[in-house]
Amino acid sequence: MQNHNYLFLVFLATILIIRLFLFLLPTSSPKIRNFKLHHYMYGVVITIASLLASNITLYGLGLGLLADEIPLFITNKWNWKGYDSLKSRLGVVIIIVIFFLLRKYILLPSLL
Asked: Where in the sequence is the domain holding 104, given as residue range(s)?
């Protein structure tokens, strides 16, 4: 399998798994004092770590976690209702399509 297709599959699987998990077990984000940790934050850390380790799997995982919450930045509804809304779902579908179309360019040379 070509690297850019593998990256897309990991990216897509991450989004589908996190969406399924949160649909079946809608849980609140963990808190440190009054600060909520959202999965996009883990995605940023994992993406940076993947670049340091030159790991395609971690890169797709991190980008998937990050992309799954991008619509929440637009709607600014950081709760279950906002996450599970039609706008959020459509936003994620659009992001997935854009990622698929640009997958050859998203794969950085250091990850080849």
From this structure: 3-23+37-111
